[in-house]
């Protein structure tokens, strides 16, 4: 049974389109560390280490993907995360000292993780990077990268907003120091072709996010589009638009239940879906194939999980899977 699952997973991976991203916290939980490790079983032990914060719905879906693959393939998986780059590096160091059989790691701040990842590679542990940091993945010695290319996703979002008739766009960056978020806005600027202005906010302060967006819309009535880079920020932006009596419309990166509801209600135009379940699931399959059959995937290029788009045309179908924590 396991061999048939591996074969089917390998075929599915081969069909993943080459398109590759990063999301910050979606809640207000102030704790940076998440340690929800499942018991490690099987002859392959994999440590999944991300930069998500506790209570982050986005990373909960990644975790579910990794655990589903682990159950199906008989792999032991532990999941740990920390939004602080230094603390995340220590989690990698701990995994190396435990001599795990593989490491899956997101790299929102690649340089802070370089030494730890180098040490893992030197120890003979295969590393797969996910979600962010694709530009440094091969350089750091990772076997592959699974995710969404931020600039490509941003460009496509910009094109969709332009096609919707928008003329001036506000791109809301919610996490300082996250290079992927800037790449999203830069890509949107390229695809939009019109005026795009960045606005920096703090994801940990939703009240301030709404106030800042509202103030910007009131001071610049030419803004008719808001691109959020996080689903919770999208909800804050939609509320700010109503508070400012603005005619602007919101689009966002990534999904949660509130965004699904907002798309249905017409408060959000669309969501850029990087299908983060696959960012947890596929690396476990890849490491299992590598261990059992010396298979690799990607050919040195990212294995892309997006961008896909969720709007009114397909939101009902996606919502069915979101209820199961897989979208």
From TrEMBL:
Main location: other
Signal peptide positions on this chain: 1-20
Domain Periplasmic binding protein: 46-288
GO cellular component, one term: outer membrane-bounded periplasmic space
Keyword Transport (UniProt): yes
CDD domains: PBP1_ABC_sugar_binding-like
Pfam families reported in the protein's UniProt record: Peripla_BP_4
Keyword flag Signal: yes
Location of the protein in the cell: Cell envelope
Alphabetic keyword roster: Signal, Sugar transport, Transport
InterPro entries: Bact_Solute-Bind_Prot2 (IPR050555), Peripla_BP_I (IPR028082), SBP_2_dom (IPR025997)
SUPFAM superfamilies in UniProt: Periplasmic binding protein-like I (SSF53822)
Example of a GO MF term: carbohydrate binding
Family: Belongs to the bacterial solute-binding protein 2 family.
Protein name from the UniProt record: Simple sugar transport system substrate-binding protein
């Amino acid at each position: 049974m396991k061999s048939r699952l591996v074969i089917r997973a390998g075929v599915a991976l081969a069909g993943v389109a080459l398109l590759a991203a990063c999301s910050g916290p979606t809640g207000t939980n102030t704790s940076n560390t998440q340690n929800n490790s499942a018991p490690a079983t099987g002859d392959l032990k994999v440590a999944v280490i991300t930069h998500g914060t506790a209570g982050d719905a986005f990373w909960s879906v990644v975790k579910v993907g990794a655990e589903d693959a682990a159950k199906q393939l008989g792999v032991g998986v532990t999941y740990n995360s920390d939004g602080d780059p230094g603390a995340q590096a220590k989690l990698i160091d701990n995994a190396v000292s435990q001599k795990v059989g593989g490491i899956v790691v997101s790299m929102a701040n690649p340089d802070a993780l370089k030494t730890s990842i180098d040490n893992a590679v030197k120890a003979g542990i295969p590393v797969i990077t996910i979600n962010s940091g694709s530009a440094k993945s091969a350089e750091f010695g990772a076997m592959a990268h699974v995710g969404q290319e931020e600039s490509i996703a941003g460009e496509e979002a910009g094109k969709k907003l332009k096609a919707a008739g928008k003329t001036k766009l506000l791109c809301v960056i919610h996490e300082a120091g996250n290079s992927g978020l800037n790449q999203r806005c830069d890509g949107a600027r390229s695809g939009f072709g019109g005026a795009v202005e960045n606005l920096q906010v703090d994801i940990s302060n939703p009240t301030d996010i709404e106030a800042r967006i509202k103030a910007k819309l009131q001071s610049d009535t030419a803004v008719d589009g808001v691109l959020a880079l996080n689903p919770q920020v999208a909800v804050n932006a939609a509320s700010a638009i109503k508070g400012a009596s603005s005619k602007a419309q919101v689009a966002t990166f990534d999904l949660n239940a509130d965004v699904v509801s907002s798309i249905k209600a017409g408060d959000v135009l669309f969501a850029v879906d990087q299908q983060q379940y696959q960012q947890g699931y596929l690396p476990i399959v890849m490491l299992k194939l590598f261990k059992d059959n010396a298979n690799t995937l990607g050919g040195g290029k990212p294995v892309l999980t997006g961008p896909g788009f969720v709007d009114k045309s397909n939101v009902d179908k996606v919502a069915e899977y979101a209820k199961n924590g897989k979208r």
